[in-house]
Amino acid sequence: MKNAGQDYFFNKKLKVHSTEPGETVTPVQKKVVASLKFYPEGGHLVKNVASKIAFEVTGIDTKEQTVNATLFNQQGEEVARLSTSHEGRGLFSFVPKEDAYYALIEGYDQRFNLPKVQPTGLVLSANNKRNDFLTVTIKSNEVGCEPYYLVTHTRGYITYASQVQMTSTRGFVKIPKPPLPAGITHITVLDKALNPVAERLAFMNPNENLKIEISPDKTNYDNRELATINLKVTDALGQPVQGSFSLSAFDQGLVQNDQPEYNIASHLLLNSDLKGHIENPSQYFINDEEAKAQLDLLMMVNGWSRFDWSDLGKSTEPAFAVETGLTLQGKLLKNNGGAAKDGRVLLINTDQEESNSPMALADEDGHFRFDNLVYYDTTQLTLQGFQRASMKNVRFRIDSTFDRLPLTNTYNTQSVFENPLRVSAYKKYAKTAIYIDSTYRRVNGITYLGDVTVVADKRKEKYRVLQSKYGEGESYLNFDEIPLVQKNGRDPFTVMLGKIPGFSLHQPSPTDRGIVTVPGAPDSLNALLTDPQYRIPRLRQGPFMGAPLIFIDNNEVTFDQVYELRATDIDYVEVYKSSSTAAFGSRGFSGAIAIYTLKGEKIFAQTPKPGMLSARLMGYHTAREFYAPAYNKENRQQYIPDQRATVFWAPMIVTNAQGEAFIQFYTPDQGSYITIDVQGISFKGKPGFSNSGFSIRSNL
User: Fold this and answer.
1) Is the pTM of this model over 0.70?
2) Average pLDDT for consecutive 10-residue bins of the chain (700 residues)?
């Protein structure tokens, strides 16, 4: 995908709203810059050969009006008139007899040049209007040219191949449609040396998508009632289908799907093979002549490509190799900074059960590389370097493990039409959710339910010095697992950011004085605590939440003293936020943080070993189970308000031999309509999607 460019990368638009009810975005007034681009069918314009040319107008509002343009030759003589027909795109036929042409958009003075006309070459044309055959025509201005080869392929698989005999300056091929799979077919013409010279896309839509029936066992449910959803998946002939499907259930009043046309079928069959943004892709799946014409126009514009005939016969290697695993690479250096040439690097992954550790050889410049690695989430990897028989005089410089792509069009300040009632409801929900989360300690979508027996990870616990007289807290952070580069030269609070749920740092203000004042302390100390150089820690959000109690090795201190510690001196941190704060009495209202420093041999263990580097690197994503409450007699959650916007999500539902599956989840509190969206793909690669829903009765 990288070899094809960023036009083929997956993109998703996100809408951002303020939680303030009356706040709106003021649209930025931008200067209108019109653009007109031309896309000759097959790739090139060839002199004296009739061609169909698609064009696209951008920068002008083409949804409400037709844009007209005029084509001129270099003498300023009118050659053709152009008009857009759908979403700024249009089509016209043309026989170029000169080397260059230009166009003017009605109402604009800027010239837009057509692609240069080639003196000789090939024009490819396709007719996709019939249901039984796809007709392909090859035209040239060279009489008696040699035969060409025509190949069609879909998603990398060749579906048709034939030799095309040229009669005078033309050649025809009729390709039967029934064997062609659904989706985009690439039509490619090759010369006698099998070099591609022209290409055109055509869309096949045999309407073979799956039929998914979603059947809730009720049409109306009470609050917190168990809902059972039955799925039945069949093919176009009504036969049961086995496959993998995803189900999401959400409150339609809050998380209404504004883009139902973007689904798995439109993405797999259409969007993924085309460049640029496709507006409302589902409109092209309608089986009528107008939709077919608009779809073919889309193929000519967004699917347009052109081969450089001057490069024919030249072998080119792709810039990026096929990725079959993760890559770790870097440079082995001497302590003086020079390359440790001809060294060796041993890679150790303690999370893997295999005892064999790979070894890589460094080249004369010290570069080494490990390919086809497989590890998940954030994994601790250790590198051991050798040069000759020595481990003491080498160190490492690791390359970035991922590419940073340049971001373009990251945000758009233009206002987007929204349902004002739904936006208002969502803002109200967002404020309510924040209040519930801060009251009942919901962190990252997880509600803490009181006493829970946890079986600890032995690798983590063996470093934990359980010397606290306050017991274990709700959160725990082992500083030994944090890379040295993240700790070196930093204070503990800064390192804790983003690693402890709910922990944050705030700049002090005059209103904080009453919150952070230490009882019985002199005014000079209390003034110190509002000094801007110290950011105030907090474990919860809310107007009455202040700084938590701070303990260093079981001794209570003021939070500013933590800034005097080095993060490299810390062993671990315990955080107390709920029932565990009972040990602190009323003084524990804002929680407590207990910091424990390194002691004994652990101090020396922090010193990096000669020739060794330990680093935590990001691996493949590990899927996490979506949290959903279960209301039963033993569940204490029944007293906590349930205001879920996303009610349920099941990313991997597999239907049985009868094409059936069922899912259960509990409904939330609010009375609304719950939309159920199901999308997936059969084991034979056929996509399908459907939606349904049910209502929740309001309890009066």
Assistant:
1) no
2) 68 69 63 85 90 90 82 91 90 91 90 91 89 90 83 88 86 89 90 87 81 93 91 92 93 70 82 81 81 90 72 63 83 83 83 72 90 81 77 76 57 58 73 65 45 44 57 84 75 88 75 41 45 74 76 88 86 86 81 85 57 77 75 63 85 93 89 88 90 81
Residue at token pair 């779809």: 295
Token digits of residue 415: 């206002």
Question: Are 53 and 96 spatial neighbours (Cβ–Cβ below 8 Å)?
Answer: no
CA 661 to chain centre: 28
The DSSP annotation for 13-24 comes to: ------SSTT--
Compute CA 532 distance to the chain's CA centroid, rounded to the nearest angstrom. Answer: 38
By CB atoms closer than 10 A (0-12, 13-18, 19+), residue 498 is exposed
471: Cβ contacts below 8 Å, ≥ 6 apart:
580, 583
Strand partners, 345: 360, 385
**Strands 687-696 and 45-46, how do they pair?**
unpaired
Backbone region of residue 308 per phi and psi (left: phi > 0; alpha: psi in -120 to 50; beta: other values): beta
Residue with tokens 């946890």: 454
Contacts with 573 (C-beta within 8 Å, 6 or more apart), sequence order: 476, 477, 479, 492, 496, 500, 593, 594, 595, 596
Find the distance separating the first CA and the last CA of the chain, reported in whole Å.
Answer: 55
In a 13 Å sphere around the CA of 321, the CA atoms on its Cβ side amount to: 7
Task: Calculate the alpha carbon distances from 306 to 44, 274, 301, 400 in Å.
Answer: 7, 14, 12, 35
Distance in angstroms (rounded) separating the CA atoms of residues 128 and 203: 8
> Residue 206 is encoded by which pair of tokens?
């045999």
> In Å, how far from its chain's centre is CA 283?
24
| CA dist., res. 514 & res. 588, Å (int) | 16
In 3-state terms, what secondary structure has residue 539? coil
Check: CB of residue 629 under 8 Å from CB of residue 648. no
Mode of pairing for the β-strands spanning 35-40 and 45-46: unpaired
Q: In a 3-state reduction of DSSP, which class is residue 600?
A: coil
User: For residues 285 and 205, is the Cβ–Cβ distance under 8 A?
Assistant: yes
